[in-house]
Amino acid sequence: MIRRVQPVLILAILLVISCVFAFGSLFLKHEQEQQAEKPVRIRVFEDGRSLMYFPQYIAVRQGFFKQENLDVEITTVSTRESLLYSLAEGRCDLAVTGLEYAICKRAEGKGDLTAFAALACKDISFLISREITENFEWSSLKYKTVVTGCPGDRGTVLFKGALVKHGLVPNHQVTLYNNIPESFQTGAFESGTGDFALAEEPEASRIEVEESGRIVASLGEETGDIPATVCLADKKYLKDNYDIMVRYVHALNNALLWLNQQNTAAIVKLAGQDYPDVDPGILAKAIDRCRKLGAWPSKSAIDPSDYNNLQDFLIEAREIPEEIPYKKAVMKVS
Question: In sequence order, which ranges of the chain are alpha helices (DSSP H)?
Fold first, then answer.
């Protein structure tokens, strides 16, 4: 006997099968979307807490990295050596420091460090005089002593270039105290060491406010535009994660746009979260001085002429024996 299956039953079975497939497809799509939306984690190490690194703090605080679906974790390490070692060992993905270190490492044939974004386009070191003077002249540094950073430090290199520019011979006509540990330099000056000292903001403003010295010259004004601080990575990492780095740079550019459009009060309010030990009034003075100087660029792209300017100072100071081509040390990400 042949039994006929009722049409209603067939329709019911087909409906059940269709629902199973539909719910299965929706579940799979949801899982794929969740995986696609998972933020990309990027570990960033910096070699200190500097106002020149401020744009990356803005990108975190204002959610610009988050908008690009990036989970950026910033860690401050004690020395530049440990920073570059951590990058080489894969303990971090990106490093934030001065471009001069990448150029010098390239000159030594060590590593494949590559810069792809600039956070600051001028050095924010200032020359501080112990004596209060209204009309500073660079010639007044002749036969004087100056507390500076270590010999290969960017500020020291630029300062030596500024001395040469004004007809003074470093370490002959002007004595540089460049063997004092970084954390003790301003303290040594305030305790009586040296006639002058170099100090970055906001430390320079603090010294002036406390009347321990007076700012008489800007290293940034004397030396012009340079990629003062940059984001570095191994070239292979940049190539393998190029699309992610495009998003990273886009977030930095939004942070720079925000920084250049806001008033000082808004910037200080945000910056206070990353500089809790700095008096808000001193921080405001420091930020105003940096903005007037033009320390932060409008975009993070590293200009070849700025790169060459920095490299000229390094060659003049004999930190590198010859030029390192721009394309070898810098990768354009946009």
Answer: 7-37, 54-61, 64-67, 80-88, 99-107, 154-165, 185-190, 203-209, 219-223, 235-240, 242-261, 264-271, 280-293, 304-316, 326-329
